[in-house]
Design goal:
The structure is a homotetramer.
Chain A lengths: L2 H6 L15 H7 L4 H18 L4 E6 L4 H14 L5 E4 L1 H12 L5 E2 L7 H7 L1 E4 L2 E4 H17 L4 E2 L1 H14 L4 H4 L3 H8 L3 E2 L7 H12 L6 E2 L1 H14 L3 E6 L2 H16 L7 E8 L13 H6 L3 E10 L2 H15 L10 H8 L4
Helix pairs in contact in A: 2-3, 3-15, 4-10, 4-15, 5-7, 7-11, 8-10, 12-13, 12-16
């Protein structure tokens, strides 16, 4: 490797382990403070209520560069402990970052200062704020997606179906055995937890898919985002009581909220999301969805107002505190493994 | 209508008309100020350079609730005057808001204060910050999408293909004649301007599609987001020189930047986006894509650093100033009607 | 001058001229949009109401680096046209920036990118985001304040009294004749408009005062911030009806709101501020004063809720639109020159 | 008390105790994550370096409603353990909130939703975002300041001198014995730690001072903000090596940074601040001081660039983590009690 590139790609991102830090007393103490400490504490309490409520299916949404930032193991621990039952994410978190690390690649501690982005481009180093990625590694990730496409029967897939195939790929290739253990994609594959990426081509997966469709113009894999929406709606119909733990906003937030309305469109009864917590730094004052309050979502009939909390904080700080709080409270004990992937396999059979 | 509902839905949103306000002297004066006035002015100059550069294809991206906020006619005027050649958007702007108004519905001036969202829910009034929507109107919009689905040959469509069908629907139904004139969907249909919505099921369209697929479980329309990505990449290959005018971030920003890399994946030569302007209130400090600097995008090989400008401002204020500046400079004169829809019709034929 | 320094200090900031841009039609059009366009328009309408209400004294507050950013002439035009009757500001705007330019110095167009702040330090160039200042010029400004201190009778002064002496200094030194015309300090001196800087030592003035007191340890000028508060309270008692036009938050916002309570403490009747408009980018979610809503200020009995508006925008963009709107509406016609400095000269005589 | 008022003022804010939560392992783990987790961790490490460096005087600055939000005991513990040697603050934190609680009053857990601020006004309940205050209690606080004024020799005082008298008042009145133990004002009085409030009249103290000066028009206490600046400069000259721990921005941030320049103005050698950490949610993009980077401060010759860190987070979450990290590392062991109040008593004698 180019020596300058080697110099810049030295120290790797390490994922925080919520199991190692019992934050319960501190988060409880924050409940009687003010501002975002109090909001964070209430958010943690509501996420814990979702765990205590054994009827409640928990949807985790991921937007922003969370996995590259050291939050991968937080998600993996939530999945392993049956604390989340379905995931809705942007593509980058699942493909470019989680699947990428499952292939054995790493994210590097970089800097946003004193660095010339044109030099990085010449070195094929991609920058996410203060984090570096080796673009040559990422191209291998793109290619791997392309290979998976080529190996599949040509037909429309939901992103969930495709991501499950990515999990199967990791599972069936022992060369990834040491990396996949802490992979969201692989853990969800094992646990039957569906992962939806409603804008699936908007990430490394897109590059693989474009390559596949370009070279297979008539018969090819396609990604049906409508099928995603139908499938996640079926999950809601199957398990009506639900709670949302949303990291960031964007498409995943909107998508998971909309399923309540989708049930109504299908003339099926389904309650609003009973619990909802969002961690975000987005502002409500530009009217965009990411920062819109959960009270506003109530006007749309999507989220109930009793147990909802916006937590205005950056996810790398707030998510370990909220997830770790619920983990150490231990309320996940007795929660069933819901295996919604298996459920969808059954209901997807045309009636 | 319920009298309370009628009381709340009185005054309608009116779209600003950039043609009526010559902001050139003011925006020029901002060039020698500081902070965001200077940035906005430089952004306007760069958007004007895109107009002057007759080789340059201009991609407009839309994220946030822009159309409901009164910016519809800004987009329509850019399309009518050949100032943008392709659009990438979130679904809400195109379906729930633009197509919705093309059906004859309106957005209402509401308030974020002193209103109880549970009362709004009971009245079937949806709230976007300070704007109200009649949910009953929106359900008709959902249904209309469902009807369009039912009328199409069952196969995978790119969102662009589907949205063109929405334009055709407006064009062929004279009852919409008085509303469609100022519709983005219809104007783009007439002008051959492609509209891509990479997360197409994440909006009112999703409800129509879910209804369609639920009732047509084996043979149905699907939305192939990979095809979207391939098509927009083909646009870039057809017209290599390009500029970006991005309103908000999110999926549309990422998607349009990624096409440079997609060309490379296909082993085709294509330059980075030569010009790029983004209006956003997102912050770079959480590492998310929406607020990431355009310099950072250069490290990824997506955007060149010479003519790029982040404008930190809310879109309802900044977009009319930047679009209006370029419009009144008149540099769009002589820009060709690129009709990328027609181009895609040709290249989409398998080689 | 060092050639590198000369290279960096080439182009000067030019102040925007609201008189040259009739923004009335555009700001009126923003009233029926959403989000911050609508808020800005309503803010402009309320500022115009203050002009129409001939009983209303208008307080302008300034926080942030506004004068260096090209907003000096906006303030000067408001003063010249009797559109503001008193100013409360941070020290930097009044001393380091306005008085500094009145001495003949300039602010320079700089950049926040690709510049090493340690190099700037070595060159004695100070940076404010994207603006450069010659520290050697600033030292002359500091010294000038020191000279004014030395020339005054040793006693406690309100910042208002001291700033009036700065105006007198400019008025009596013809070498500043060409620069002072567009100086806030000098225009306010001529028009009898009081300027309060509640944290007066927290700026270039502080350096002059420290030098003065260090060298005059027993008998010296002091700055009595309590006297400031008493004086501005007397202004409110003299002219009970009042409106606030606040650019940024900080000490000036708090100070001017508090005078309603101060009247009450003195057992005098005085109404809440009847009108209030604040332009700010501060967030309410950290509980700090700068971003706190004007509705919150009502709970404190400081601001009435009928005609108040927060405008979430950066000042260099929003202030010219709001000030320019009121200017071009012409409602300032018939507003009296209130000359509160003269009023204070009388009431300051002990009863 | 009015029953509705009683209903709203039920639960009191409890201050978090950093001694009870060993956050060292978690904050260390954040060092290899990204974004603000990494920045927070680095900020904590730098604050710990200030503790390890026994030559370094540590200045704590406070802006925002921190004390009412539950951070009082964090500051008290830093003072008790010789971890900060001087404080610069806004007035509200020191007078309306800390001194107020030392008089036996409390802050109440309130809400920002579903509450009508005009009702609060009628009930004499003041709101800070989600926190309530009994205005009747606050009036007693104002009066107490007035009494202290009346008891002092009429002359100009620095805010530091006045606040020390507030500490003496608490010390000499045994009725406050149970409350003062956790008072910043009283602890600093006992430990000789100076507290500077550069805009001292901009808070509850202002009301007391206005009342005092109104009723004592010719001979009265005045607050000399220039003396504040001179005194804090003398602290820097006495202990040249220094570090800054800044919570929020505003006047305190600017004031403490400026003392390096003030030393230079007095033609004394003094190094830049060697260490600097700021917790803030302010944005740099409006060019205001609060959000300006510490690198920018280097161009002004105020802060060195080697050990500086901006932490973009809300203080109620981040301050306990950073302060608690340093506390549990134990590096404060061996730090001297610097008693700068005693030093100033000596140097304030005219040379």
């Amino acid at each position: 490797m180019n020596p300058r590139k080697q110099e810049l790609l030295q120290k790797t991102i390490q994922h925080i382990d919520i199991k190692a830090h019992n934050v319960v007393p501190m988060v409880d103490a924050m409940a009687t403070m003010a501002f975002q400490a109090r909001n964070l504490s209430r958010g943690a309490h509501i996420f814990n209520m979702m765990q205590e409520d054994k009827e409640c299916a928990v949807f985790l949404t991921l937007a922003g560069s969370l996995i590259s930032a050291g939050l991968k193991n937080v998600v993996v621990d939530l999945v392993k402990n049956n604390m989340v039952d379905a995931i809705v994410s942007t593509g980058a978190n699942i493909v470019d970052q989680d699947f990428f690390e499952a292939l054995g690649f790493k994210h590097y501690i970089g800097t946003q200062y004193g660095i010339d982005d044109t030099e990085l481009r010449d070195l094929m180093i991609d920058r996410i704020y203060d984090t570096f990625i080796d673009e040559e590694d990422l191209r291998i990730c793109d290619d791997t997606i392309g290979q998976i496409c080529n190996s599949l029967e040509p037909r429309p897939y939901s992103s969930r179906e495709f991501i499950r195939e990515m999990g199967r790929f990791l599972d069936e290739n022992d060369k990834y055995a040491e990396f996949r253990e802490n992979s969201i994609v692989w853990q969800c594959y094992k646990k039957g937890v569906p992962i939806f990426v409603p804008a699936f081509s908007d990430c490394s997966a897109g590059f693989g898919l474009v390559h596949h469709q370009w070279h297979n113009p008539t018969k090819h894999v396609s990604i049906d985002s409508a099928k995603d929406f139908l499938e996640i709606t079926k999950v809601k119909l199957h398990n009506p009581e639900s709670g949302l733990f949303m990291i960031g906003g964007g498409v995943p937030k909107n998508f998971v909220q909309d399923i309540v309305v989708a049930c109504d469109i299908l003339e099926k009864e389904a309650p609003m999301h009973k619990y909802a917590v969002q961690i975000t730094v987005a502002d409500e004052r530009d009217g965009a969805l990411s920062g819109s309050t959960l009270k506003e979502a109530c006007s749309w009939g999507k989220v109930d107002v009793v147990y909802e909390q916006m937590v205005w904080a950056e996810a790398t700080i707030a998510m370990p505190l909220i997830a770790g709080y619920a983990y150490h409270k231990g309320s996940q004990a007795g929660r069933p493994e819901r295996r919604f992937n298996d459920v969808l396999d059954k209901v997807n059979v045309p009636a």
